[in-house]
Structure formats: structure tokens, C-alpha cells
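Re: duplicated header lines in exported C-alpha cells

Our pipeline writes sequence and C-alpha cells for each protein into one text file. With two proteins the header for the second block appears twice in some exports. Here is an export where it did not happen, for reference. First protein block:
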Amino acid sequence: MTEYNNKSMLEVLVTTALSNALLELDPLKNNYSNRYLPLEISILQWMLEIVPKLRNNLNLLKEVVMNEIDDFKVKYDYAKNINDIDNIDKSSKSIEILQICLFLITIELEFNHLYSVKGYNKK
């Protein structure tokens, strides 16, 4: 219960919705257009778990996401060497999703820097 006290209502709702979506997705996961949904949901769940822990240190959050991208690049290269098409595809999609997260974190860092440079009081 204390975990929910540290999260906003939106975070709780999104986490619950993602968990429910994974359960309900099982019959649809063999559909070609839905093949990335479990992967996308698991990355979103990971981000929802890690962001509250590192919310006050965006540089560290950026570093953690960059490390995850590097890990998936290693998996991608390994899968490429053994011609494992399924893992190549999943690693590539994971890198793509995490790069979007990295972009958003970088934008937030730049915004925070500009905001603090102008001398505004941050809340």
C-alpha cells in the first residue's frame, strides 16, 4: 500500500491498465500488427517503475536508459550473428522505444536547464 502512496493516481491507473492489457493481450499476440504490444507494455512498465525512483535526478535516469539501450544493442548484435530474426526484431524495437524515452528525458533536462538559467523559481 505504501507503494501507491508514493505514486500519483495517474501512475497507479496506468500501471494497472498496463498489467490488465498484458493479461487480455494473450489471444491477440499472434496477430502480426500486435506483435510488439507485449514488448511495448513491458518497457512502459519498466519506465513507470524506475521514473519515480529517479525523478529528482534526470541525469541518472538518462544514464540508466542509455545503459538499457546499450544492453539491447549487444543483444541485437548477438542475435544478428546467429541469425535469430525474432530477437533481432525485438531488440531493434526495444532500442527504438527506449530512444524515444531518452529523447523525452533529454528534452526535460534541457527545459529544466533553461528554466533554471532564466532565474525562475522552480517548484
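Second protein block, exported in the same file:
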Amino acid sequence: MNSFSINRFGRTLRWVVGVNFRKLLMWTSGVAMAVFAGELILMKIDHSDYPHRQIEGFALLGWLIFIFASLILTSSIVSSIHEKRKREAFLMLPASSLEKYLSLLLYTTFISIACIFLAIVMGDSLRMLCVWVSGYADDKVNPYVVDNAGNQIHWWSSAVSRMWYGLTQNFNSSGHSFIFNAGHTKQVELLTNGYIVARYALSFAFVMWIHSLFLAGGTFLRKYAFVISGIVFILIISLFAQIMTTFHLDSYEYKCFVEYGREGFDNYETVVRMVNSSIAGIVLVLLLAFSCFNYWASYHIFKGFQLISNKWTNYDILKR
């Protein structure tokens, strides 16, 4: 089968979801309970009188769980067909290698991660319900606070919205963002258009590279794929940081202007954020190139799947 068929792809995807449905349900339930229990523990040990600090702690917990669970699921792309019986059934499906690979990719990358996010929402909603029913906020000095955007943050507020805010607040597209106003000093950050575009592009390329790295590791390895891929990721990031620090390289740069006596402030500091186009371009190209290589390697390894493979890997190097 050399041609790609949407119908065959849909049937293959349905088979993958059906085989892994119980596992996915357990993951969703487990993550929801982990988020719920984690937020209750944070409530127990937190003695803050301001709800926004507690909500930020919940949001950080949710992000950590979301990231780790997503990477674990990505690196387990072929874990459902490690057993000989399941692998035999999967390899005998009337679909092409590309259709089978994309069905596993779609399941781990979109369906599973969407279920993880849903689990976080469920766990956070259970915490909100407990706070509302138990009267937890009745003994607090401040029933709510107002953030910089004018929104009221209560003790029973959702942490999911804060998670999204934490993701998008660093990508201000309006050209400026207020940083702080302390005493007689005001600081304003101005973002150039090139800086905004570069942050979007580099962030997207970085996430794509991480996904491709754990995907390739999960396709190649049969055991400890997440652990080994994580070690490789840490080593690469450490090496990259060392190179950038040693040669004093940076993708971004800034200029600072200090004015006095403006708008009633003794110090009025303006920071203009810009992008170092040459360094940022090289980093972007490298991230995209390594991502494409990882995706290609993952699919190439998958195409060579055999009914019986090596104990540790899915790819027999000696025979190729």
C-alpha cells in the first residue's frame, strides 16, 4: 500500500484508540486525582492571606504535571505494541506504514495530551468545589484580590486560566508591557516587532524539537524511553547553555534608557527588547533541522519494525 487513504487511516486510528482506551482512561483518572490531591496538599501547607499566590502555586503544579505526563506519553508511542501478540495484530492491519505511524502519532500527541489537559481541568474543578462547599475562604482576611488586568481572583478561582496566562504573558504583541512601579521608580519594557516574531518562532521550534526528541526516543527504545530521552535532553541543553555562555552569545539583546523627572517619577527606565537576528536565525535553523531529522528517524525506525525485535531497541543496527 503506497497511497495514503483517509478511510484506512481512520480505521487504524480507531483500532489504536480502542486498544489503548483502558490505559488512557487510567491515565486521565490518575492525573485528575494527582492534581486534586496536590492542590489540597498545597492548600494545607500554604498560609498566605492572598488567593492569587495560592492560585499561582496550583497553576505551577498543573504545568509540571502536564509537561511530564505529555512527555511520558509521547515517549511511549509504541509501548502499546511491545507485546508480540499486539505487535502481530498491529502489523497485520490493512494499512500502510505511514497510516499506522500517523495513527500512533495522532493518538500520543493530540488525543492523549488532550485527555491529560482535561484531567487537569477535572482535578482543579474538584478543588474549586471543595473550597466552595467547605467554606475554606470564610476564615481568610482577603476574600479576593484584583490583578493588573482588573480581574477578581478568589480562593475558589480556577488555576487553569492562570496556566494559560502564564503561557501567553511573555508574548505581548501590543509593543509594550508594564513591569513595575515601586516607590519613585517606574520601568517600562518596549518590545520590537522582530523580538516578538523571534520569540514566537523560537518557542515553537523549541517545543517541536522536544516533541521530536522524545518521539524518536520512544520509537527507538523498548525500555526506559522517557528516562533516557530525558537524560539526552538535559545533556543537550547543558551543552548548548555552556556554548552560549562561553562565547557570550545571546539570541536577544536590549537597550536601557533612563529618564528623570518624567510623569512625576524620579527614575523612569525604558528597556527596549530586540533580537540578535544572526544568532536567533542560526538557533532556529538548527532546531528545525534536528526536529526534521528526529521525525524522519522515528518513521524510518517504525518502518523497520519486526515481529520479534531486540530486547532494548526496536531497531536492529547490526542487520542494517
